[in-house]
Design goal:
The chain has about 325 residues and is of the alpha+beta class. Helices cover about 70% and strands about 5% of the residues. It is built from 14 helices and 4 strands. α2 crosses α6.
Length: about 325
Amino acid sequence: MYIKLFLGMVGTALAILLVTALGIGFILYALGAFSFTALLIYTVGIGVLQWLFAPAVIELVYSVREADPTRYSWLHEIVEDLSRKSGIRKPKVMIADIPVPNAFAYGSPLYGNRVAVTRGLLNVLSRDEIAAVLGHEIGHLKHRDVQVMTFATILPAIFLLLARYLFWWSFWVPVAEEREERGATPLILVAVIVGVIGFLLNLLVLGLSRLREYYADYHSALVVRGGARKLQLALAKIVTSTARVVSHRPEILSHLSPFRALFITDPNRAVEESEALAEYSREWFIVERLKRRRLTLMDQLMELFSTHPHIVKRLRALDEIAKELGQ
């Protein structure tokens, strides 16, 4: 399964590059003398700046601070042990002061690698379950997929920005007879096609994001004893606990949304994913109930626009991982 996930990520990345190359080729062909360079430099520049300084923004938005080495010595020990097993340097251990249980990995060349857990996570999960969650987050750092996703998300942004620019530009230039005489494609049509390319690229990038979550789940199972089973329980508890918090404080979703792709689960989908579990309170009943849940067509369609796989699919995939690793 590890090879399958790796090849899936490589294949999706290649598809993103292929669609990007075809899109750029179409733009150059359709617009002739139009210069794509300025827009490319602008968009890539914004993406690079975002990547370099994102840790500062994340820590400001989520009230993140470094975990005290004395008070949270056990947390530092878990991260150090998992980092050693993963073959990477220990990232800085952080705590986000938000009630929703979650965790995320982030970093940049300016700030180094960091892994954060929320105060809600510390209140909900056992230490073994926290270790499984941290194994997942360290997997993201091991695979360097934070950087990959940063640059991947730039590509659809370029096309969507260009589509918007061309749409408005079409109202200010002589569009009709003069352009048709030169054999050029009408700008409004070019804008629509470029927008469609950007939309398709965005779907591919979201697909890559979901694959990286499976990939990080596998890493957790590799470096944590019984990690697949512990992560199943952790994910189920995170989803159900998040649903409870959100039902009482729905406004918190707008606060979490800007960087939800970083989280181990998508808080925006917690209520929908756990609504069938209200009558279950024992921990493993929650996991088994989730795994048996039938995915509807709407579930499948909504997943296409999500940064994370549906929780049911993740739990089933972790069953396969546990079986493969003998856990």
